[in-house]
């Protein structure tokens, strides 16, 4: 089958589209014919590699997948061949106390499709049957593939970890990113006032259309100053941090007394400076969040079906254009998700 793979860790040049052996489903697994697979910043991290990441090359990229079940392994009674599905990107062991509690993203053996195991930017992918959720019929395959990782990440961070309440103000960085697009909508759904930042006025207008109340262009203004101005100098109750080094110090300064900063990623670097005086004196809570549970994804999909959350597809490209797609993502040239079709 054809797949977007990396043959080694490195720059854009290690990404190839070529033939790899077609995977077959084992016990408890299903094989899915991929119709659409979205990109994430995680793809770029995996391509570059990090200490502790061990993959077997060639490694198939891609965490967000929608498709049709082609074949089921022994012991699988659902889904059935022919079912349209969207994949929950996280895989827990299924047996430990965390998994049994429905908190598989806290499982010690937790992994993400396309990270430690083969991904879905390919013609076919094999996953545990429990990861294959019914695709909402109202969504195209491209739209369905644009939901899982970023909406799950934003949902668990804002609803699960930061516990955003009605009337609070939430700062969402990089509102044009996959996580940003999801976070603006989720914070609004939870009843918050949303201050969104982006690097261009065109992206900010799109963020407004998603529900953002206040817009801050971080290229032309100082976002900390703007946040203080927009909150009567109080700061925001919650910051959704996924940018990392470039924004971290500002995120801490933008938080209100007793505020919560929830960090889900570090696109611009994971080793920022933290002035602890601001953390203890202003009694900030710094919360980590990674992914979410399949149950949370099912809830998100319900809100999508009800029209309360909507995936945003920036563009659809053929699988062969994966390098171009990664370059667009690296340059932040998109608003929402870039989706590949095999
Ligand atoms: Zn487990």
The CATH architecture designation of the largest domain is Alpha-Beta Complex
Strand content: 25-35%
How many domains would you count in the coordinates? 2
Global structural class: alpha/beta
Tally the helices: 11
Give the H and E element order.
EEEHEEEEHEEEHHEHEHEHEHEHEHEHE
Task: Classify the helix fraction into a percent range.
Answer: 25-40%
Low-confidence stretches are: none
Bound molecules: zinc ion
Number of strands: 18
Gyration radius, to the nearest Å? 20 Å
The named CATH superfamily of the largest domain: Medium-chain alcohol dehydrogenases, catalytic domain
Shape: globular
Average pLDDT rating: 97
Calculate the terminal CA-CA distance, rounded to whole Å: 10 Å
Which fold name corresponds to the CATH topology of the largest domain?
Quinone Oxidoreductase, Chain A, domain 1
Q: How is the biggest beta sheet arranged?
A: 7 strands, mixed
Indicate the CATH class of the largest domain. Alpha Beta
Features:
single chain; 342 residues; alpha/beta; Quinone Oxidoreductase, Chain A, domain 1; 7-stranded mixed beta sheet; 6-stranded parallel beta sheet; 27% helix; binds zinc ion
Task: Tell me briefly what this model is.
The chain is built from eleven helices and 18 strands. The protein is an alpha/beta fold.
Report on this model:
With 342 residues, the chain is α/β, with parallel strands linked by helices. The chain has two domains: 177 residues, Alpha-Beta Complex (Quinone Oxidoreductase, Chain A, domain 1), CATH 3.90.180.10; 138 residues, Alpha-Beta Complex (Quinone Oxidoreductase, Chain A, domain 1). The protein has eleven helices and 18 strands. Strands 3, 5, 6, 9, 10, 17 and 18 form a seven-stranded mixed beta sheet that branches. Strands 13-12-11-14-15-16 form a six-stranded parallel beta sheet, with helices on both faces. It has a three-stranded antiparallel beta sheet with strand order 2-1-4, with no helix packed on it. A hairpin with an 8-residue loop joins β1 and β2. The structure holds zinc ion. This is Alcohol dehydrogenase. InterPro entries: ADH-like_C, ADH-like_N, ER, GroES-like_sf, NAD(P)-bd_dom_sf, Zinc-ADH_QOR/CCCR.
């Amino acid at each position: 089958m054809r797949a977007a793979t990396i043959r080694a860790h490195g720059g854009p040049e290690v990404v190839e589209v070529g033939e790899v052996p077609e995977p077959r489903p084992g016990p408890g697994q299903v094989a899915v014919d991929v119709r659409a697979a979205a990109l994430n910043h995680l793809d770029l991290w995996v391509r570059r590699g990090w200490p502790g990441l061990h993959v077997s090359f060639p490694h198939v990229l891609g965490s967000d997948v929608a498709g049709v079940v082609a074949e089921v392994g022994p012991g699988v009674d659902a889904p059935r061949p022919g079912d349209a599905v969207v994949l929950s990107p996280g895989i827990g062991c299924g047996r430990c106390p965390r998994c049994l509690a429905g908190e598989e993203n806290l499982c010690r053996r937790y992994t993400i499709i396309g990270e430690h195991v083969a991904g879905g930017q390919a013609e076919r992918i094999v996953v545990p049957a429990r990861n294959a959720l019914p695709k909402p019929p109202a969504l195209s395959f491209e739209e369905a593939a644009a939901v899982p990782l970023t909406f799950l990440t934003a949902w668990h961070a804002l609803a699960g970890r930061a516990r955003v309440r009605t009337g609070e103000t939430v700062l969402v960085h990089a509102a044009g990113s996959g996580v940003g697009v999801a976070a603006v909508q989720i914070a609004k759904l939870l009843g918050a006032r949303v201050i969104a930042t982006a690097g261009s006025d065109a992206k900010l207008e799109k963020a407004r259309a998603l529900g953002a109340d206040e817009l801050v262009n971080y290229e032309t203004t100082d976002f900390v100053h703007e946040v203080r101005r927009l909150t009567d100098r109080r700061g925001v109750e919650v910051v959704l941090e996924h940018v990392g080094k470039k924004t971290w110090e500002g995120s801490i300064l933008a938080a209100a007394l007793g505020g919560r900063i929830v960090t889900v990623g570090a696109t611009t670097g994971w080793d920022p400076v933290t002035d602890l005086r601001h953390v203890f004196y202003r009694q900030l809570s710094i919360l980590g969040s990674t992914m979410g549970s399949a149950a949370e994804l099912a809830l998100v999909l319900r809100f999508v079906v009800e029209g309360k959350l909507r995936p945003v597809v920036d563009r659809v490209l053929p699988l062969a254009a994966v390098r171009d797609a990664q370059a667009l993502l690296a340059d932040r040239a998109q608003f929402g998700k870039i989706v590949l079709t095999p």
